[in-house]
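Predict the 3D structure for this chain.
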Amino acid sequence: MLTRRSMLAAGATGLAVASLGPTFAFAKTPGHKRLLVLVMRGAVDGLALAAPLGDPAFRQHRAKWLDTYADASKLDGMFSLHPQLGEIGKLYTQGDALIAHAVATDYRDRSHFDAQNMLETGGTQPYARRDGFLNRLVGMMAGEKMSAVALASALPLALRGKNPASTYAPSTLPQASEGLIDRLPDLYAGDEQLASLFQQAQAAEDIADASGMRNINRAKDAGTLAARMLSDPQGARIAMLDLPGWDSHAGQLRMLDKGFGQLDILMSAFRGGMGEVWNDTLVLAVTEFGRTVAINGTFGTDHGTASAALLMGGAVRGGRVVSDWPGLAQGQLYQGRDLRPTMSLEALIAGALGEHFALDSAKVMRELFPDRNERPVEQLIA
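Done. Predicted structure below.
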């Protein structure tokens, strides 16, 4: 985590400069485009996010939970949006949100750790790669000095690699006096690396201070900070935020009411904070895999395969659900229990990023998700 206070702590304890992590190199991407990636860890039930009420088999499998969608907004003739996603529903109506359904990575087992590793690295097998797909995206625009930041205390795997990326989270250390902070530039002036790190820490802290955000565990604060980081002319152009807590083995209705409600609050704050920059913004909300179609004995669902992904932002060709719907009749399920994947999540991401950043989507697919034959999904970005 790079802040002025972390610089002070490093100096006081004699930590090596390398321990401060990669640099926070603020810069602009082509066309001033912004990207926010939300990783919903724990495996989101896509059938709850966008319920296929038009599929008779869904009504049979989820009969006990149908009351949840009594007042849900219809997305089209097949799908209805979870009622806690009201603000995202407004984005959908305005054409600023799109839902991709029956999507999955190449992973076909049921380990959160292995699935998240493949999602973040873009590898064809767990632990086959050490760098992240977002770090490789930064490398594709190295001439633009693209900047990327994770709103977290540690750099997530998706941003790790040889290209510049950093982290930001509010410090829990005691507040240093302004007088001491004002004297630090002189102290670091003789060391080019320390001086650069301190300048980057000041930039990140100043942007965060302007947002008033002090707790990224609160959805509204997290959305506000993400907007502040991305909308500021001197801020980052790529940001990543983890949203844990989606492993709904028991008590799923209450758990997802809370989870989707928090996601909705976060997106409302983010949209409000982006202002006109929203029109140049893409938000990707993805998860490692889906849940079983059937309800289990503890009123939850277990690890599944396909799920849903959200694309949001003023840059999105929204107001639609993109899906080759496989159906939920028993003979249509994957391994007799899961929503069958009909769209590659990697191809969806590559297509969206290629169109958003005006890159060759096929090249994006090769660089970010190598050794695959899928074609990038097209016509996702306006």
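The two ends are 35 Å apart (CA to CA).
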